Amino acid sequence: MINRLKLNSIKIAVAPRDLMNWLGYFLFFVFCFILFAYWTFPYERARSYLLERFNQQTLPGGRVKPSDLQLKIDKLEPSWFTGVEMTGVELIKQATQADDQPMVISADYAMLRTSIFALIFGEIDLLFEVGVGPGEIKGSYKREENEQEILAGIEAIDMSRLGIDGIIGLPVKGRADGAVTLSIGKESAKTRGNINFKVSKLVIGDGKSKLKLATLRDGITIDTINAGDLKLNLKVEKGVGTIAEFSSFGKDIQLSGSGSIRFAGQLKLSRLDLTLDLVFTNAYKNKSERTRTLFSLLNLHPSLQNAKTNDGSLRYQITGTLGSPRYRPAGRSYSATISRMKRNTRKR
Fold it and tell me: Quick check: 322 and 269 in contact, CB under 8 A?
């Protein structure tokens, strides 16, 4: 049988076998095009371009300066047809003080894969996987018109690779596990979810590193602090995340926390209202001559005096935003000072 197609009054006879051949040639061409584009794509050039754009900040007038955050990628490779895999990844935040160490977050590899159909409709649908030593973080990120969704599972992550030493000045060890289920609405009241996090066998310091204090120029060496298992459970409803549990009961220190996070459409702008309590055990205070000397000096430090509460613990309030948190002592001396300032202000 012969099909007859009528185009602009011209009759063209096409045999079904010929039509199938032409369709096969076309599909073969598309397959070869995609395959060779996949093989020959300039991933090294793409890596260089990505690093250049990330590591430089353009100022008004066209001037360029290094960004506060620096990204390093040893190698960039394809991951199937819609993703990339990066190996030897480091994110570095330079220290603000000359004597401080930078914050370095490192991963052995990071994989990102996107959905083509989501991009067609102007949305984002990403799968991600990050390998850190024997552990990994797997999850997804979706962004639609009125909602963002983050799902992640955290398993056996080495805390020493997360750059916390660049924040507190002391090395931190432990194994992190957890899960994140968070739906961020365009209207903050529609944000909801749950965050569970646990750090097993948390250890702070190594007996060699020094804690820098304003009154001690060279710092003071801190004996290893065993903080036990740190647990965090944050429940998010109607845009407000409330700490249901934040605790750690180690043989050297006990930690507890409370408060809330008011989520914004951009996570880094979420507002913090948190309180952190620290209690060092008597066993740690008298662990060695070094620790006895340490606490004798700390008892004279102004910031520690302002952080002390009536029960002897140290209390700090954390405010600001996720992207720019602020810490201040919130003990009895500080509270008394604030109350006195308020009374003087009223009298005026």
Answer: yes
Amino acid occupying residue 125? D
**pLDDT score at 100:** 72
Q: Residue 123: its pLDDT value, please?
A: 81
DSSP summary character for residue 341: H
Residue 96 to residue 98: CA distance in whole angstroms: 7
Q: Is there a contact between 81 and 139 (Cβ–Cβ < 8 Å)?
A: no
Residue 154 has pLDDT above 70, yes or no: yes
Q: In a 3-state reduction of DSSP, which class is residue 170? A: coil
Q: How far apart are CA 170 and CA 294, in angstroms?
A: 15
Q: Are 119 and 126 in contact (CB under 8 A)?
A: no
SS3 percent helix, strand, coil of the chain, rounded to 5, is: 25, 50, 25
Domain extents for the chain?
43-141
CA 126 to chain centre: 17
Q: Is the pLDDT of residue 248 over 80?
A: yes
101 to 164, 224, 294, 324: CA distances (angstroms): 11, 19, 22, 19
> 169 by DSSP, 3-state: which?
coil
Helices (H), 42-174: 43-55, 116-120, 165-168
* Eight-state DSSP code of residue 161: G
> Could you say which DSSP state residue 321 is in?
B
What is the SS3 assignment for 304? helix
Length reported for the chain: 348
Identity of residue 20? M
d(CA 136, CA 172): 18
What percentage of the chain exceeds 70 in pLDDT? Answer: 86
Please give the Cα distance from 222 to 203 (Å, whole number): 12
Specify the 3-state DSSP secondary structure of 272. Answer: strand
Q: What is the mean pLDDT of residues 50-72?
A: 85
- Kindly report the pTM of this predicted structure: 0.78
Using DSSP bridges, classify how beta strands 103-114 and 3-7 pair: parallel, antiparallel or unpaired: unpaired
Query: If 0-12 CB within 10 Å is exposed, 13-18 middle and 19+ buried, where does residue 29 land?
Result: exposed
Q: Give the SS3 label for residue 71.
A: strand
